[in-house]
Amino acid sequence: MSTSTLRSLIPDSLIIANNEYYTLLALLALLTLVGLAATFAFGAKKSSKNTILITGLPFAGKTVIHYLINHNRSVETITSIKENEANVVLTEGKSSVHIVDIPGHERLRFKFSEFMPIARAVVFVVDSATVARQTRLLAEYLYDILSNKHAQEERLPVLIACNKSDLITAFKKDRIQSLLEAEINKLRQTRTAALDTQDSEGNENVFLGFEGKDFAFQDLENEVDFIECSAEIKNVEDIKDWIAAVSS
Amino acid sequence: MLDFFSIATKGGLVLWSKAYSSAQSSPINNLIQEVLIEERSSTQIFYKDNYAIKWSFVNDLDLIFIAVYPKALGLTYIDTLLQAVSSQFSDHYGERIARKAGGIPQLKDWDVQFEALLQTIEDQDALSKKSKQPRKFEQTVGYTNTLAYAKAKPEDLKDSTKAALLDEDEFRRNVEMLKKKTASPRMGGRKGKGAKSPVASPVIGSDDIKKKSKEGRKWDGKISAKDAKSLDYSNSDMSDVVMADHLVDQRGMGQLSKDGTYNVADLEASDDEESYSDDESEEEYTKISARSLQAKKPVAASSGLMSFFKNMTGQKEMTEENLEPIMSKMKEHLINKNVAADIAQHLCDSVAKGLVGQTLGSFKSVQSHVKQSMETALKRILTPKTSVDLLRDIAQAQAEKRPYTIVFIGVNGVGKSTNLSKTAFWLLQNNLKVLIAACDTFRSGAVEQLRVHVRNLKALEQNAVVDLYEKGYGKDSAAIAKEAISSARLTGHDVVLIDTAGRMQDNDPLMRALAKLVTVNNPDKIIFVGEALVGNEAVDQLTKFNAALKDFSGLANPRHIDGMILTKFDTIDDKVGAALSMTYTTGQPILFVGTGQTYTDLKNMKVSHVVGSLLRE
């Protein structure tokens, strides 16, 4: 059979004109390049753990702090539905830090656990003025962060940023620390006594601190620091310094 | 009118906001927390205190547009406004925002643009209210403000501007002619009449005017066609009469012509839709829409060029059309997993709303993207928004030296007593003293069943303190519960578990009795016990139980269901839809799931497990 008869057997739509080969080739080359670039970019992002999480209850001032750190601008905010991400260079000459502001709403909080595997450190923002009313909520969230598998394994440093320190009703950081310690002390009793989850593969609940001794942050293997700050008067330099210190 | 308008990112950054009254941003935070985060955005409007709030999304830019207005006003143009504002805003600043992802974009001139837009839409609304033909107007107003209109009819717009120019010329000619004609007293009289019936009269003779406006258009055509003729015959008497009629008609229509240029706009508007809309705003609006059209054009061209590459890399924008089949499949899938039908619908609508307009990343299918966002949505819904740490609550009550009370409610045969005793077993293991109040005074054997449980529990734990408080059958359950609680206070029990009779949600007298029990005793937790086997019925049960607690309580702050126990969870394999239906309906967490026959078969629900089961093929 000659080539012409062979050709006639193939539907016209399948035959590619010579000039179209070039376009296809060019496109293929382009695609591979794009693909490589993408995998490179993503791979690099995941492997080097340079992510700092900003966590905390709603209305603590996470998003404001996020924008202060990344853009040095005070912004007006509403409740976040989505996390805010940004890359920022904090110290000249150092590589950039990836900062993620996690929404504080209870229903969206689970997102922090998705970022834990790539986290370098966690900033936990506390509203110093309402801390007395919210102690339990704060402690529960903080407990979840501290007892997270990654936080335990990697001994992630945690910064407790006592925001809104400019307010007259604001608690001092020592007082906040003792409030949180007392509450976590109670929580670790109840949490470890909670029912197993269905299909539980080993108890994920860890006991924070030492048994038989009241809970104290210094008993943890994680480094936990307390600082006072105020996003209102743009006083977040301490947070920046801390982030720069842990990510270097 | 409008109280507050805000443009924000989903990340919570307010890009632009304007307050027209002293409304704070708090209703907006309520909207986000109570509607958007709960995946209830398939609803259209949200009421909070005295405010009504409407919103719209631009998903590819992650923007939310929120309009707040007083509830009492019931403004009808808010939808139009949101639509117009969101399309114009994303046209103007979309690129800038996309480029500075996560940054703080500068919004130049937006204030002015917004004001113009708002003014236009408000004016149109005011006019439509004045006229007695709201239907007709709604059509035109709504349509002119949509982007679809601007896209669909760019030619029309051009035509109308052309027509406007023609009209101007013609008008001048007509005026000249009229000057010539003023010699005729008859004509002068007519003119005066015309001047007295101004444009502001549409209310009375809107119909006539409409007709006239249409006639006017015909006239326009004739005039321009007969242009030469009119010039020719200017001296002829015959033609003069014809022209005179002609002029009268024109005048009656466009009376404002004496003001000068705006007459043109008026006529132009009349050409298209309404002869009596506000000229100024009308023209302004046409300008704006024309501008936005121009802005749109280059984008469209580039997208045509880029679409080839976008298709190659699988990068495409999600539209309602290409989401529709996938969402309906997803809905079917959820229903197959025993999710209540209307909840599946709501959820799919809400997820679709959050997806429309997003562009897919390369190498991603729409299907997988939908699945991913559905997973996030499910996680959001199922994650408890309040603490489910019951032991911590009990410790608090202990500190206050009072017994902690839990009421178990539900329909017949779902396992209230069984799961009550499982809960008792868990509490006993934590060294708490438990009192069980037998408030099912209705079904024979109910008290005896609890007595057996108490005996078993005592046998299981040597020094467990668990007692039964019972007063036999036929008594008022609310009173028994009350006595049980006060006795627990005396005997030093930490927890009182109150067992109630099962009742169907439609049984009014029994529901009243339940509401009374709750009102009288004000328990710490009201736990609804529901079967995992239940399908569509779950929604009905929960809403009616909640409604009964609310309606029959007579309290200012009525109680509602605080949490749920999902029983018979071991019997349903992966058809775990009831868990979703129940949490979505109440917004409350599932505290435990019952997974078997023994006292230890009470577990915490694992959200990821349920989400996994729901999405498994």
TrEMBL record, chain A:
GO terms for cellular component: endoplasmic reticulum membrane. It is found in: Endoplasmic reticulum membrane. One of its GO terms (molecular function) is GTP binding. Its main location: endoplasmic reticulum. The keyword Nucleotide-binding applies. Belongs to the SRP receptor beta subunit family. This is Signal recognition particle receptor subunit beta. It comes from Mortierella alpina (Oleaginous fungus).
Automatic annotation (TrEMBL), chain B:
This is SRP54-type proteins GTP-binding domain-containing protein. Residues 181-194 have a biased composition (Basic residues). Residues 181-221, 254-282 are annotated as: Disordered. The keyword Metal-binding does not apply. Pfam families: SRP-alpha_N, SRP54, SRP54_N. SMART domains: AAA, SRP54. Residues 268-282 have a biased composition (Acidic residues). It comes from Mortierella alpina (Oleaginous fungus). InterPro entries: AAA+_ATPase, Longin-like_dom_sf, P-loop_NTPase, Sig_recog_particle_rcpt_asu_N, Signal_recog_particl_SRP54_hlx, SRP/SRP_N, SRP54_GTPase_dom, SRP54_N_sf. It is a peripheral membrane protein. It comes from the Eukaryota. Keywords: Endoplasmic reticulum, GTP-binding, Membrane, Nucleotide-binding, Receptor. GO terms for biological process: intracellular protein transport; SRP-dependent cotranslational protein targeting to membrane. It is found in: Endoplasmic reticulum membrane. GO terms for cellular component: signal recognition particle receptor complex. GO terms for molecular function: GTP binding; GTPase activity; signal recognition particle binding. Its main location: endoplasmic reticulum.
